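Tutorial handout. Part one gives the primary structure; part two gives the three-dimensional structure as tokens.
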Amino acid sequence: MDEGNQQLKDLLEGQKREFLAVMSHELRTPMTGVKGYLSMILDGDAGEISDDVREYIAQAYVANDRLIRLVDRMSKTVAIQEKRIKLNIGKVDLTENIELLTHDFGIPARDKKINLIYHKSQEPIFVSADPDRLREVIMNLISNAIKFTDEGTIEINLRKTNDEAVVDIKDTGIGIKKENQGNLFEIFTKENLSLSGQRKGTGLGLYMAKNLAEAQSGKVWLEESTPERGSTFSVSFPLVN
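Part two.
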């Protein structure tokens, strides 16, 4: 890439970050206010309301809360891009953390008639990571698997290599066409948006998972994928004794 193209790319990347930062800041304040007022109405501070009105207000509250979470994800995306994510690296029991996450995703998996299976290791496997950020990486990958699987099975396997612990998340979902696999983990690319456009979502999950893992000396990658048969995403973290 010549110097002129690189400068243009850097400029566009900077504009993306500025756009996300401004949107996050400008949207969060009014939406938080809306959430407060809706909560007050549901708590009866505005007087008695009918059951029908309560149902409408409750749906508006849930939708607004979903938007706030989206704004938070955009803010975190900017923080990742500007390398402002704070990490508390230590010794983390990967086996136990995956078990907790599998339990947390049990209900959304059952709601879609998905059999969520964790092949738990018989012994603790310790890695070097920030426990909160480690869980966030794996949460994004499990959530992604559930989103793109209508029914069937999601299997989570944990294995060790020479110096890494690897988590494989295999689903029986819609899969990813070969032409859409190239820049899957980049933000706002044609491949990323094409995939997210097939289901409700922003396409930020894989980008965040990859970058948060790499910030902890880990890796995230697509192991394999076949359209209409499913995908396997993998994440690794450094092993510690």
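Part three, for discussion. Helices lie at 3-42, 51-81, 94-104, 106-111, 131-147, 190-196, 204-214. The chain has two domains: 3-81, 90-238.
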